[in-house]
Amino acid sequence: MNLSSNSIRHLLTTSDPVAIDDLFMEACRVRDSIYGRNIFMRGLIEISNHCRNNCLYCGISRSAKVRRYRLSPEQILQCCDIGSRLGFRTFVLQGGEDAWFTDDVLCKLIADIKHQHPDCAVTLSLGERGRDSFRRLREAGADRYLLRHETADADHYAYLHPSEMLFEHRMQCLHDLHELGFQVGAGFMVGSPGQTLETLKKDLKFIADFRPEMVGIGPFIPAAGTPFENERAGSVELTLRLLAIIRVMHPHVLLPATTALGTLHPTGRERAVMAGANVVMPNLSPQDTRALYSIYNNKLSTGSEAAESAADIRMRMKAIGMEVPDDRGDYLN
Ligand code: SAM
């Protein structure tokens, strides 16, 4: 499929349903030729909503008025035990930038998870850290790191973040992670305030050049109490088109059907799979903390977004012709 700059513009803006169907079919064909009809499940553990940053879009930023919590290493290990029994072979530890999770604490935690679940991958999504810290986490056994680049346009980045957060540092972190041997996840919100067709084209170019092993994209959803609380949510349709374009231009990528899509549309996850996604990330956090990890309004954490519903997810994926193997689901090179 031709993905020149002009055809990307056309695919992102056209109202021709045939062109969009063709794009989705091509994305599925490309995915299936590499990963087969497999959807990989990751157990998401939201380890802390403390954050030193003040991203203007985020409902758990430093200034947001939310009750703060932090899971203990013992609680996190319990989540992994539960997940392992449910068939999860990847644990994603995600949280705000919380100084309590020092390198020493995290290295011990990663080693304990790996010791208790040697067949599982550990993914971290804990924001920006120094190269030396990333190196220690990698040496402790972490396999993957998710750090969305948020936008590949420096001016747009500055519009979404306070001045102390630097675009160059985020990019440096992504390069460091790759060099240290992590499978790296980049990504961005669709419809974030100030986003244009031009900034989206820069995101696609960044993905084509950097070739992250994973790309997390989901619609922006306003979060109460943030400077962007009255902005419009991003479009589900545009998110699906971008998923499909990313699959076609970077065939081996691991592409999650994100919670934000499921939050905006009851069958958002299935639609993402039918546009080329091949990862789902249900919530493995303790029930009583899920509502506190409120990065945006009405975030789903129950129903099929909840890890206890692994059986439900398997059924829903089967209904659209997909299988969910008990498998780490590593990037295939
Ligand atoms: N602190 C880590 C980091 O910076 O990567 C991980 C946690 S952060 C909350 C995870 C992701 O949530 C961000 O990369 C951002 O893209 C997404 N996010 C935050 N606020 C959002 C919103 N209002 N709508 C949609 N996604 C949002």
Terminal-residue CA separation: 21 Å
Structural class: alpha/beta
Helical residue percent band: 40-55%
Largest sheet: 6 strands, parallel
User: Approximately what portion of the residues adopt beta-strand conformation?
Assistant: 5-15%
Compute the CA-based radius of gyration: 18 Å
Average residue pLDDT: 95
* Backbone shape: globular
List the uncertain runs.
none
Number of extended strands: 8
SSE run: HHEEHEHEHEHHEHEHHHEHH
Number of contiguous helices? 13
Q: What's the arrangement of strands in the largest beta sheet?
A: 2-3-4-5-6-7
Distinct bound molecules: S-adenosylmethionine
How would you describe this protein?
The protein is an alpha/beta fold and 333 residues long. Helices cover 41% and strands 11% of the residues. The chain has helices spanning 5-13, 17-35, 73-85, 103-116, 131-139, 154-160, 167-179, 197-210, 236-249, 259-264, 268-273, 287-290, 310-319, and strands at residues 40-41, 43-48, 90-95, 121-125, 144-146, 183-190, 214-219, 279-280. The chain has a 6-stranded parallel beta sheet with strand order 2-3-4-5-6-7. Helix 3 (73-85) links the parallel strand 2 (43-48) and strand 3. The longest helix has 19 residues, at 17-35. Bound molecules: S-adenosylmethionine. S-adenosylmethionine (SAM) binds at residues 57-58, 94, 96-97, 125-127, 147-148, 150, 189, 218, 220-221, 223, 260, 295-296.
